[in-house]
Amino acid sequence: MIEMKDVYKTYPNGVLAINGISVKINQGEFVYIVGPSGSGKSTFIKMMYREEKPTKGSIVINGVSLENLKEQEVPFLRRKIGVVFQDFKLLPKLTVYENVAFALEVIGEPPRNIKKRVLDVLDLVQLKHKARFFPDELSGGEQQRVSIARSIVNNPSVVIADEPTGNLDPETSWGIMRLLEEINQRGTTILMATHNKEIVNTIRKRVIAIEDGKIVRDETRGEYGLYD
């Protein structure tokens, strides 16, 4: 599913963010990415969907080599990868339905297919009844659910979640985690960067810990660790 081999990332200012990472993530896994602030987690995540390119090394997702990918091919890669952000990134002038449908419209999906698929994923995230609402009429948790619906409407093989509970209260965060678990149980690989110690220590999954750009711990049913 995902394989990194001897990956390095140095930014133009000289900061070495990723320092020789090699890792393999299999289809259907649920993996937490943890570590202190400035450890390289965000760069690690961004390289997965080609927001950042490695300075050296190889990254392969679903058999596609990311370092050799041409810029015009990047949108096709991202259609196969769902991304969930901490700040939702919903389009404010579109309804819930339109925000989710947009992900299918841009790839030319026939209108007859769009309606059924959008309503199906809104049902999964329990927001079918708010399909005509706008983002500013929703709570933070509901907005994140819309973001998740949008990320899975293309049936991606992997969902990358970057601090998906970071802006949410504890009760809402647990609801988001139950949703991500359900998506994972349907066969989708989940890769989640998080600072939420309680979630990681309660919902035990594989934990990859990054410090100073290196993987320092990779445990099948790991714990969060001593990070802020």
UniProtKB/TrEMBL annotation:
Keywords of the record: ATP-binding, Cell cycle, Cell division, Cell membrane, Membrane, Nucleotide-binding
UniProt-listed Pfam families: ABC_tran
Source organism per UniProt: Aeribacillus alveayuensis
Protein name: Cell division ATP-binding protein FtsE
Topological category with respect to the lipid bilayer: Peripheral membrane protein
Subunit-level organization: Homodimer. Forms a membrane-associated complex with FtsX.
Record-linked SUPFAM superfamilies: P-loop containing nucleoside triphosphate hydrolases
Domain ABC transporter: 2-227
Recorded family membership: Belongs to the ABC transporter superfamily.
Functional note: Part of the ABC transporter FtsEX involved in cellular division.
Domain of life of the source: Bacteria
Entries under CDD domains matching the protein: ABC_FtsE
GO terms, biological process: cell division
GO molecular function, one term: ATP binding
Cellular localization per UniProt: Cell membrane
